[in-house]
Design brief:
mainly alpha; 5-stranded mixed β-sheet; 5 strands
Length: 688
């Protein structure tokens, strides 16, 4: 007999399955039991404690975004546009939603590691709550608890919800969109589907097209399953589209109507146009691998033609030359393009644990509900979370441009939600061979895959993977027994034990991740021994600041204390010197700002004091340690000038800077001195 939606149960309180009628409206849902309320409270409190614990160990996290948060904490215009510097020369290369949160927190509480990172951790709690709510409406509160726990125990979530990249707020908004879409399916609600569109509009303003990877699944789910005539469904989807355009388009319009001369340059664009950034640098160029340094093969590391900044590198600067967790190196984190990307390299450690089980669950749920009414909410839930997983997973798997493993955070709610829905659906059908075998298959897939992933770092807790494998096999074998369909207690114990085993591998790696400091642009998950040779920050280790240079910049009173090639270097200097630094050429060094004429005007008008050049060390590798007195002898100054001329304007990979003309003009008109590993030109007093 084909079942439609059932009043769903947690395995710990399960009764034998029974048929039920059509999905109930939200107003008639069964009230939460005392234990369900306690379970949710424990889940949210546990997530908060784990993610907030010792969060300042991550310091400034990614200095690139930390500098923008600092700027936003001091300037409303910088907050609005997501400027890298408080003087509003240039933005970061992403939209500003993430900077709004961190910058506003800095304005309220004062800028620092805690005020910047605590909001990120609270986003994890909110994401877990929203996922619990969405899955709970599809498959009951027990399944919602399982989904929330699976998300909280995902290593990439433990990494990125304690970090300051835009991914945290983007995933929160994507999850909010999925929650609103599920709510809309109960009564074909125009309001809820419009809220879903609005949430994705702000997800777009967090990280552009990546924030929209869930959109196709939400549209298909509503178009297929909403309980309304076809015309009404289409009209309400158009309303959601309008909500999306309003919530995202207002900022795009703002950048168009605001005079470019009085706002920061939009980094990453070739013409200071937001849509150029959307469709180019952060859009199709990133997916197709065009116009992106590093591509899928990774850029150079220190000692491979890169100019090493004094205060560390930010995201995308250079790729590591060594592999994580003993894997091979192909792009960032030992990855390779194709269907295997999510299962191997650093991707596998960050997200791969439950992906096979979630994909199997999607197939099983769709098969089990194949003959259910069009409005069946369980099948619609599989479309939402399974569709999200497939679309986003395929895009991440086949991206040819710059891609970091932590991008897979966008998959975490989809994987956790689909896994939980699949477990519950098969549990409700445990009286049938299909249900028992499907449930056993999901649990076994999760356990066996965890065993395999842990085997790639076999020196760490070697017994854990064998325990997971043994428990998973025994649990699956027990679930397969016909007696499980008749004995609720035996089945409950077997399933609970199997779920614990399924989550143990990812959970152990998540806990290990929480215990490690993470800084730079390429943080990785897991225990310290599994990190790249760059240290606990991964490939993009943060360097030390130069106190003498910082002191020089701090004593300036010009609009920008200094100008330097590339945003990553400027960001580190801003944080260490507490001044605004002009980032020539933006993130990649190739943004067409400023022109030589504009820079000369800045200097002539006394708006910038120093021009800095980061020198290559003589051995071609790391920069020289320590500092050198600014009053070095003339011979040393001459040598520094020669080094500056040889190394100025260089970009990673040995490419010449797009702003070599500025470097040449400065070298021709000013005398260099050396401060540590930096060649400094004093631009003050120039009148042309």
């Amino acid at each position: 007999m084909t079942q439609t939606r059932t009043e769903l149960t947690d395995p710990t309180t399960a009764a034998p399955p029974r048929p039920a009628g059509p999905p109930a409206a939200s107003g008639t849902r069964r009230p939460a039991t005392r234990w369900e309320r306690i379970g949710l409270a424990v889940l949210l409190a546990g997530t908060a404690v784990a993610y907030l614990w010792n969060i300042t160990v991550n310091g400034m996290g990614n200095q690139f975004y930390a500098a923008a948060a600092q700027a936003g904490s001091r300037s409303w215009k910088a907050l609005l546009f997501g400027s890298l510097d408080s003087a509003n020369f240039i933005t970061v290369d992403k939209p500003p939603v993430s900077q709004w949160v961190m910058g506003l927190s800095g304005q309220i509480f004062g800028f620092g590691s805690a005020s910047m990172l605590i909001p990120q951790a609270l986003m994890a709690v909110a994401s877990v709550a929203l996922l619990h709510g969405a899955v709970g409406r599809v498959s009951g509160r027990g399944a919602g608890l399982l989904a929330g726990a699976a998300l909280a125990l995902t290593p990439v979530a433990a990494l990125m919800f304690r970090f300051n990249n835009p991914d945290a707020v983007m995933v929160l908004l994507m999850t909010a969109g999925a929650y609103a879409a599920v709510r809309s399916l109960e009564r074909a609600s125009a309001r809820w589907i419009a809220l879903a569109g609005a949430a994705l509009g702000f997800a777009f303003l967090a990280k552009m097209l990546e924030g929209l990877m869930v959109m196709p699944a939400l549209v298909v789910a509503f178009a297929v399953a909403a309980p309304a005539p076809v015309r009404a469904r289409l009209v309400r989807l158009l309303g959601a589209l309008a909500a999306f355009l309003v919530s995202s388009g207002w900022f795009v319009l703002l950048t168009l109507v605001w005079p470019a001369s009085s706002r920061p340059y939009l980094a990453g664009s070739t013409d200071d146009n937001f849509m150029n950034l959307v469709l180019g640098y952060n859009g199709f160029a990133r997916v197709l691998g065009r116009n992106h340094p590093g591509g899928g093969a990774g850029g150079p590391g220190p000692g491979q033609g890169a100019v090493v900044p004094p205060n560390g590198q930010a995201a995308h600067d250079v790729a590591a030359g060594s592999a994580a967790h003993g894997g091979g190196f192909g792009g960032f984190g030992g990855q390779t393009q194709g269907l295997g990307r999510l299962f191997t390299g650093e991707f596998g450690f960050e997200i791969g644990w439950l992906v096979p089980a979630a994909l199997l669950a999607m197939v099983l749920v769709v098969a089990s509900r194949w003959r259910a009414p069009r409005t069946d909410l369980v099948r619609a839930g599989a479309i939402v979370f399974g569709g999200w997983l497939v679309v986003d997973g395929l895009v991440l798997s086949y991206m040819s441009g710059t891609i970091h493993p932590y991008y897979c955070l966008s998959l975490a709610p989809a994987v956790a939600g689909m896994f939980a829905i699949g477990v519950h659906e098969m549990w409700t059908r445990r009286t049938t061979w299909f249900g028992r075998s499907g449930l056993a298959g999901i649990l076994l897939a999760a356990g066996v895959w965890s065993f395999w992933i842990l085997g790639r770092n076999a020196d760490w807790m070697p017994a854990l993977r064998w325990v997971i494998l043994a428990v998973s096999v025994v649990s699956a074998a027990t679930v397969l027994a016909p007696r499980v369909g008749r004995d609720g207690r035996l089945g409950t114990v077997a399933v609970v034990v199997g779920i614990v085993a399924a989550l143990s591998g990812s959970g152990a790696y998540a806990i290990a991740t929480l215990g490690q400091p993470h800084t730079g642009g390429g943080p990785t998950v897991g225990p310290a021994a599994a990190h790249r040779s760059g240290g606990p920050g991964g490939a993009f280790g943060e360097g030390e600041s130069d106190p003498q240079l910082d002191s020089m910049l701090a004593t300036t009173d010009t609009t920008w204390s200094a100008a330097v090639d590339r945003s990553s270097t400027a960001a580190g200097l801003e944080l260490s010197s507490d001044t605004a630094v002009m980032a020539i050429g933006g993130f990649t060094g190739s943004d067409p700002t400023p022109t030589l004429a504009e820079f000369v005007d800045y200097v002539r008008n006394g708006q910038v004091t120093y021009y800095l050049v980061q020198n290559r060390a003589q051995d071609g590798g790391d920069r020289s340690p320590g500092g050198q007195d600014a009053t070095a002898q003339s011979g040393q100054q001459s040598q520094a000038g020669q080094q500056a001329r040889a190394g100025r304007g260089a970009a990673p990979g040995g490419r010449e800077s797009a702003h070599k003309d500025i470097a040449d003009w400065v070298a021709a008109h000013f005398t260099p001195i050396t401060v540590g590993s930096t060649t400094v030109y004093d631009l003050s007093g120039y009148r042309g």
